[in-house]
């Protein structure tokens, strides 16, 4: 597994390194981990003043200091022995997106401040920009996120579309990421259906479904959404169950995640340049209302 980890001098980077160090099942597979620090470009006037070589040396030295500081805080080199460290400079989002594609990364692990959901900066500008510019799956750990325990409770959000199936397939292909004996829950949220009105106000001659028939139809749709995901997990002998939530997805899914999950896995349609367009409105609300780390699979 190839993992790209952007790092800087922030506490987010320290948390990300600790997260990786705690994933024994992942590290046991000898993943290819690349730690990348991107230094912002300086104005052309400074390059002319100091010279290109001096500017590059400054970038390199500053980036190396970031890695040395991380080493002091986490001792990551003792466990991530095969990890590479790279300093780049330029536009942060552009450089990271290009590196993710060039290295054929299977995963980007990012920290995020979780700024203002009204502005669409659910994950912060860099994470948001990367979601828009690359199809590499991204694990986003917010500042407020509680890092998952070694045995993780993983929720896979499905709605019967190909996006949920893509998220489930990624999980099956990279089980080592989720620790020893993880608990998987396939979560589907259905809109509430009001009690039937008799007679039908639109067409009095039209048959009216009973409450029992409405509930049975809801259960049928639930099984149609979750069963294609449950089947391969059960065949693989994994600890998996299904959960039906009834209500507004924007409210029910974050509430369930906050109380029952260590990690959310969801698919996204991958269109647009803003969080609302990339994730979709429901996923955007989930991201805004939960502090649980999120693994976003682009489709």
Automatic annotation (TrEMBL):
CDD domains xref list: USP_At3g01520-like
UspA domain boundaries: 2-142, 153-298
PANTHER family membership: STRESS RESPONSE PROTEIN NHAX (PTHR46268), UNIVERSAL STRESS PROTEIN UP12 (PTHR46268:SF6)
Family designation: Belongs to the universal stress protein A family.
Protein name: Universal stress protein
The organism of origin for this protein: Sutterella seckii
Lineage of origin: Bacteria, Pseudomonadati, Pseudomonadota, Betaproteobacteria, Burkholderiales
């Amino acid at each position: 597994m190839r993992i790209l980890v952007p790092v800087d001098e922030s506490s987010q980077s320290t948390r990300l390194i600790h997260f990786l160090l705690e994933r024994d099942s992942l590290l046991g597979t000898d993943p290819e981990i690349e730690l990348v620090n991107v230094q912002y470009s300086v104005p052309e006037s400074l390059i002319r003043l100091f010279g290109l070589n001096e500017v590059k040396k400054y970038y390199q030295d500053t980036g190396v200091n970031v890695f040395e500081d991380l080493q002091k805080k986490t001792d990551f080199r003792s466990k991530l022995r095969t990890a590479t460290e790279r300093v780049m400079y330029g536009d942060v989002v552009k450089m990271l997106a290009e590196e993710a594609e060039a290295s054929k990364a299977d995963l980007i692990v990012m920290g995020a401040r979780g700024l203002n959901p009204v502005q669409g900066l659910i994950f912060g500008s860099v994470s948001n920009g990367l979601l828009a510019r690359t199809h590499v799956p991204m694990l986003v750990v917010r500042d407020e996120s509680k890092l998952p325990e070694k045995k993780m409770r993983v929720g896979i959000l499905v709605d019967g579309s190909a996006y949920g199936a893509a998220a489930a397939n990624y999980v099956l292909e990279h089980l080592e990421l989720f620790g020893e004996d993880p608990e998987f829950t396939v979560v589907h949220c259905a809109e509430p259906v009001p009690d039937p009105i008799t007679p039908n106000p639109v067409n009095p001659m039209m048959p009216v479904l009973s409450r029992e028939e409405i509930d049975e139809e809801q259960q049928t749709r639930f099984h149609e959404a979750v069963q294609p995901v449950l089947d391969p997990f059960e065949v693989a002998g994994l600890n998996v169950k299904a959960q039906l939530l009834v209500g507004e997805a924007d409210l029910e899914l974050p509430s369930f995640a906050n109380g029952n999950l260590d990690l959310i896995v969801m698919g996204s349609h991958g269109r647009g340049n803003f969080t609302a367009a990339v994730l979709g409105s429901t996923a955007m609300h989930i991201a805004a209302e939960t502090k649980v780390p999120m693994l976003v699979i682009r489709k």
